[in-house]
Amino acid sequence: MARPYRLGSLRGQFLRWLLIPLVLLVALNAFSVYRNALDAADLAYDRSLLASARALAERVQIVDGKVVANVPYVALDSFETDTLGRLYYKVTGVNGEFVSGYEDLPDLPKNVPRSEIYPALVHFFHADYQDQAVRIAALHQPVYDDQMRGIALIEVGETMDARRGLSRKILIDTLLRQAALVLAVALMVWVALRFVLSPIMQLRADVEAREPTDLSDFDPNVVHKEIRPLVNAMNAYMARLQTLINGQKRFIADASHQLRTPLTVLKTQAELALRENDAAAMRQIVASIAQTTDATVHLANRLLTLARTGHGAAAAELEYILLNQLAQEVCLELAMPAVRKQIDLALEADEAISYRGNTLLLHEMLSNLLDNAIRYTPEGGRIILRVYFQEGQAVIDIQDTGPGIPEAEREKVFEPFYRASASSVMNPGGTGLGLCIVHDIVKLHGGDISLADASLQEDAQTDSIGLSVLPGLRVKIRFPIQD
């Protein structure tokens, strides 16, 4: 069985969910800012490079039909001082001949487009020169005199050291600012979380400080609106737990009270048997002990069944069963007691009804109902057990011609150890647990149970003026059919 995943700190998860996307967004923003800064730096350096090319172009002229360039070293030194990088230049004549500068400086590639930013015939491109990366501005400069005219090419290359230094500075400054921003946000979120989560931490402290016997409600208004459903659920659970505990206390008190009497009788009978010397009297006492023991065992079994249904232990033991077959089995098991009392026991369950429930408890339920009906129906009476389907529900309907239960007592008979007045007269040895067990089993299965007068009056006994003396009892149980 796989171990369930254990959730970590709420504060830590919140920080991770907030800071990880924030770091990604900051990284994207830093990259965007860095790229924009590089573009701005390139624009500024390219403008300076173009200015150098223009300054050189002003020194290019035609002398005696040849293109010449008068470029003193002082001018180049001033350009290098302004750009903070090493400069290289080359002047090419109108016919492609080398005029001045560094002859091996790379030529302008054919596929480099003209820059649209400046009002000049200038092309910018990257190249490698003397094992260094350089940025070159190639400017087409018109030259002419009285004898010829054409366009000379002035190329000025600058090493990338200054640009790369500026790029690193921009990147480091950007990352430092963004990191400071992330740290500030993390600190503010941490402080905010401590403040926001303080009601929950206080609730945890209140739960830990509670006594085990204190099941009173927690105040949902001391926490945030989103947490109130959880607090309300806790309160509802504690209310159910309190109900269960109260039921257990009542059950234990009632069970101890009910068991005390037969155990006391057993002890008394045993003491009498010890003092008795007559064999016949001894045999009679032992028979009484056996009878009392049977009643005590019956009571204990009823109490165990009641305890089991009260704890809902059968909720995980559900299976599909046929109610008509279950009713037939119970009728066969209790046929002999009915025959001894000459009771007409009829079963009407022709339709096969499948229901998902606990077989043992449903068998106990039917056995209790049919056993009660046989116990309280006079000799020569009639009992009908019907199982049928009606309006999406499985219905179990039991009618007898016994004394019935007065309407005022029909709700009370579902309480433990309560016995109706007629039942106490006809069966003094009863436990008062049968209908209570039936009620709990029905509720455990999500069903409904109702008591009413039976409709078998034509077979009931009547008095001298024709009124029914035994109204009979009708027990009707409805179970919803699950899909």
Question: How would you describe what is shown here?
Answer:
The chain has 483 residues and is an alpha+beta fold. It folds into 3 domains: 10-169, Beta-Lactamase (2-Layer Sandwich), CATH 3.30.450; 228-309, Signal transduction histidine kinase, dimerisation/phosphotransfer (DHp) domain (Helix Hairpins, Orthogonal Bundle); 313-480, Heat Shock Protein 90, CATH 3.30.565. 49% of the residues lie in helices and 19% in strands. The chain has 11 helices and 14 strands. A 5-stranded antiparallel beta sheet has the order 4-3-7-6-5. Helix 6 (279-310) runs parallel beside helix 11 (434-444).
List keywords for this structure.
483 residues; alpha+beta; Beta-Lactamase; Helix Hairpins; Heat Shock Protein 90; 3 domains; five-stranded antiparallel sheet; five-stranded mixed sheet; 11 helices; membrane; transmembrane; phosphorelay sensor kinase activity; phosphoprotein; transferase
